[in-house]
Each structure stands twice: as structure tokens, then as C-alpha cells.
Amino acid sequence: MAKQRNRLVDGVAYVAARSLLFAFAWLPEMIAYPLLDGLGRTFLFLVKSRREISLRNLRQAYGDSKSEPELRRIAYRACGSAFMVLADMAKIGRYVHSGKFMARFDRSHWNERARDFERIANGCPPILCTPHLGSWEAAGIGVAIEFRSIHVIARPLGNPLIDDYVRRTRSLTGCHLWPRRGGVVHLVEGLRSGQAVGTLPDQNQRLRALFVPVFGKLASCDRTQARLSQMTGAPIVVGAAIRLGRRFRFRVAVADMFGVPEASPSADKKTAVDPVYEATCRLHRAVEQLILGAPEQYFWVHDRYRSRPPNEVSATPGEKKSA
């Protein structure tokens, strides 16, 4: 009986989600985006825990350089920006299939950096590292169009019907989603066949993490991007699609691009610098640069510092130490 009820709940949620996406796909931008912006701000006002996380993250990033009212304004605008990504998800398919998707981007910054990319890439596709900034959905699809396809590791959604729908629709736009278990194999295969890889590096990493400074505080970070670059020779490109107004228009911002060398087999392990660690630090310095360039579009509600280093003596005052 429980299984039947769960299937019913999944089915109802699936129909509701499809209906919502359909509505936002066809709503005019002047209605859809302000509506979601308002919903995001309302969410932050109502959910105290996420509001506190946002403000704590902003204080970490800005220190004493901004007042509390300024930080609150950024937090509310940023949450509204995150909700607007839902409209991007709904509209992406229409713009891709009509051939108008890339016309929605100001690519001048990428065009300026294209020669740098060609120099370090040696014919390899990029490993795109885009934080939850602007529209990470639009950024991934843009790279998929530019490089034929993009491979991304994504956690399966709780509702199998919605999960299957998202994976199928994303594959039609050239974005292939893989589960974390065994997913890296597909990323390597994609890079070696000339297809891009996309990652969201600014999430708390629970397994096999590297702790590197993020806005001056150690954060649990993924080492996958650096290892992929080592294994395939593909360069890491740290960039984002920054939203222009409350609509489906963006400018491409690129903060850094670099390759990761293999560790020297002859180096003294006690004194040698770990290329993976150095690359991960460099990646997150570039992520910080992107975020501070458009803080009102960043996903500050994520508990970025939840995991702590095992040798950390005490938690930051006022924060609860977690394992």
C-alpha cells in the first residue's frame, strides 16, 4: 500500500512540475522573472535558517567592508536571482530548438579570451567550472552547444519520474547527466572524445574532499576537476553566465583558465607541492573573483562550510561544529 501511495505522490508531483515548467516556458519574460524574483525574496524572509546561512556566508566574504543592511540587500537579491534560474530551465529548450539560444549571450569577454584558451587547450575541450552564480543552467547549455556536448555529474532527484524527465530533456540540448557513482568514467570518456565537462565546484564536498581556503576560511572542496585535467590534458575554465536584468539574457565572464600538470615522480613527497591541491586553490580563487563581481546573483543560501577539517580544534565562535 505504501508503494502505491508513493507512486501516486510521485505522479502528482511530476504532473505539477511539468505544468509549472510549461507555464514558465510560455510566460513572457517580463512576468516570469519578476514573479520568481519575488518568490525567492519571500522564501528567504520566511525561512530563517537559510537567511542566517546567507548572512553568515556574506560576512565571511566581506568581513567589515559592508554594513548589515548592505549584506541583507545582497542576500535577498541573490535568493531572488536563484529562483529565476527556474525560468531559465523552463525556457532553455525553446531557445535551443529555435536556434536563438546563443544570441541571448554577450560573448565579448569569451571572444577576448578565446586565443588564450586555444593556446593552453591544445585541441582539448574545456572542463567548465561554474559556481552557482547567475544562471549555471544557461552556462552549461552554452558550453554544450559550443563544444557539441557536455557531461555533468548530477545527484538523482528524489522523484524518479521528474529525474527521468530532466535527464531526457537535458540530453536533447546536448547535456548528459551522470550519477556520481561511476560517473567520472563518463566524464573522462567525454573529454577524450572532444566533448566538454561541466562542474559546480562551490558545493560542500562530503567524500574525498580537499580543504582549501574559500573567502579566508577552509572549505571542503572537490578534487575531481584537477584530477580530470591531469588525466586528460583538458584545461580548467572558471566562468559563469551573469544575468543581465530580470530576463533570459547573459554575459559570459571568465575568471581563469589553466591546465594541471602531473606530479613529478622524482619529487620529494615531503616537500613537493601537490599539483591537485594547488589547482584546487587556484580554481577557488577564481570562483571568489566571479562571485564578488556579481554578489547579488550568488547562491549564498548554501551551507558552504558545513564540513570541517578533521584536525580543526574548535569551531568558529557562534557556529556549531559539525563532523
Polypeptide structure, described:
The protein has one domain. The strands form two sheets. It has a seven-stranded mixed beta sheet, with helices on both faces. It has a two-stranded antiparallel ribbon with strand order 6-7. 51% of the residues lie in helices and 14% in strands. It has ten helices and nine strands. It is globular. 36% of the residues are buried. The C terminus is likely disordered. A hairpin with a 6-residue loop joins strand 8 and strand 9. It has 323 residues and is an alpha/beta fold.
Low-confidence stretches: 313-323
Structural class: alpha/beta
% residues in beta strands? 5-15%
Distance between the termini: 37 Å
The string of secondary-structure elements, in order, is: HHHHEHEHEHEHEEEHEEH
Instruction: Record the strand order, biggest sheet.
Output: 1-9-8-2-5-3-4
pLDDT averaged residue by residue: 90
Q: Find the count of extended strands (DSSP E, 2+ residues).
A: 9
**Largest sheet features:** 7 strands, mixed
